[in-house]
Amino acid sequence: xxxxxxxxxxxxxxxxxxxxxxxxxxxxxxxxxxxxxxxxxxxxxxxxxxxxxxxxxxxxxxxxxxxxxxxxxxxxxxxxxxxxxxxxxxxxxxxxxxxxxxxxxxxxxxxxxxxxxxxxxxxxxxxxxxxxxxxxxxxxxxxxxxxxxxxxxxxxxxxxxxxxxxxxxxxxxxxxxxxxxxxxxxxxxxxxxxxxxxxxxxxxxxxxxxxxxxxxxxxxxxxxxxxxxx
Length: 230
Hints:
Layout: H1 6-33, H2 38-66, H3 69-84, H4 93-122, H5 129-154, H6 158-174, H7 192-196, H8 199-228
Helix pairs in contact: 1-2, 1-4, 1-5, 1-6, 1-8, 2-3, 2-4, 3-4, 3-6
């Protein structure tokens, strides 16, 4: 059966990955245009991954213990929009560092929380998971292409305004979602260390670490490389 909130989830994922894809692809060009060195750009862009270690855990804990996951999703959306305004003011490395920490503290949790809501509503039936999740990839592709033409026309400074509009769309999409009761599990959960020691779990984390490492380098420096090549 199609999930009741299928359209809402698809819309949120479209908007979220539209923002995430556009910002991660072109932020390095924006920082270069604001006078940051390649080393400084590397540090700034690494904060996206650093905050993915902390943000989802912090806000996931708050959402689970408050039992108001959609409210937390909306709260992080509003906080991300306020934090993003920091890119309009200031031009020093320290300023951009603080803005990246604040922004990614909130945005890093939004994708995982939407997925948790979606999986709770599906209650184990993943028939439509791929079709809904696909809209995140479509949002990524469409807006990365559109923003490239915008920046060719208006310069890299236009990235901030474009991404700001996308964050407004993310917040609007969050207001279409409704809370879903969490799945309850019977019996005692397995020990965490026992799970982490499993060969398939170790292989999964190893493959994920390699994938993220490759993507992080590509997203951060490939745009700079292409610009240098004309």
